[in-house]
User: What shape does this take?
Amino acid sequence: MRRNVVHEGAEQLTYEIREIVAFANELGKLGVDIIWENIGDPIHKGEMLPDWIKQVVTDLVADDRSYGYVATQGVPETREFLAARTNARGGCQIGRDDIVFFNGLGDAVAKIFGFLKREARVIGPSPAYSTHSSAEAAHSGYEHLTYELDPDRGWLPDLDDLELKIRYNDSIAGLLVINPDNPTGTVYPRKVLENMVDIARRHDVFVIADEIYTELVYNGAARVCLNDVIGDQPGISLRGISKEWPWPGSRCGWIEVFNQDRNETFKKYIRSLINAKMLEVCSTSLPQFAIPSVMGDPRYADHLDARRKVFERRVNEAWEILSTVEGIYVSRPQGAFYMAVVFGDGLLNDRQTLPIENPKVQEYIEERVRDVDADKRFVYYLMGATGVCVVPMTGFYCEKRGFRVTLLETDDEKRRRTMQALAGAIPQYLESAR
Ligand SMILES: Cc1ncc(COP(=O)(O)O)c(C=O)c1O
Assistant: This one.
């Protein structure tokens, strides 16, 4: 081809959460019974929406409105409803024009980074949720910029490290926080969020808060949202129904923009996101129509409460099992539905293995563990020996070695067995070669 048509950032587009599936499928063909603990899709793991939510959707299927385009930014009444909910918290106030719907947050993230000036960077947490880190890296053509979440402090950020990184890199225009966090399950206390906003204010950068798990906070943590702490600083909150209802297949998420009238450049940038959406006409309409009926229903609060209790129980049970295992660090999540496990420094090597009964599976794995990161090696052996499919920590743009496991299995017995399989496999692997 007379021109190189490949974008500078093309190599940054990786998504280990799904890439591990190809490996698992190959093991499946060789006879391994895969236990999927890689992706945050509650439906895939057997959760069912309550009948009353399904009825709202069913009624909309019979409603002719659901088959048309809607306004580019989203259904006005739905945006009004959501703005009122946010405003009722009493923090930064927004209007319906501060809300823009997308085809899921995946679409929102692609536009947020895709329409940022090439030289303007956003610093995000490490470990990172890959959709953000890949999109930011691809937009800039460089490695993603990160601040460290510290496992010894329950995966909260080292704010001194964050501030120094922002101070000495004036290409940084935005600060990303994921709260509750994926993959660690950490919930940011108010003070930490206030300090982060303060850093953003002092260095004149905007804040992006991915709050897709905001209603899934438990284990005594308080739910604090960006609008509670943002004050008059420009900011964007990312929200959606994928995890909350949960309806990931709806491809429905939205952004809430704070203080766009206080900064001309920020306002222009937000306008560019809306114009980009205009080129696509609009986002999925039916889920937007469903939002006020579902989230405005008196049963919704109970629904969320019941889900929080379920995840709290599962998290604590998994933590009880894994926290006794030597050689790993595991903190007790307070939100979302994941658990991050990290191996102690220097404990992994390229001679460790797990016994695998099927020689074909063993051969397949041995061929693929050459030159892979140490935690991916563990993940491959784990899958071959137990069928459990988790995501290596290095897939989350992270220097630490470990893995993320989901807590979505609805069959209590099966979930317990999975956690016990992990608790058994970890020391066996570590001790197989010291
Ligand atoms: C932190 C975070 N943000 C965004 C998303 C994507 O959400 P959506 O289904 O709305 O694209 C996910 C999905 O796992 C996530 O964990």
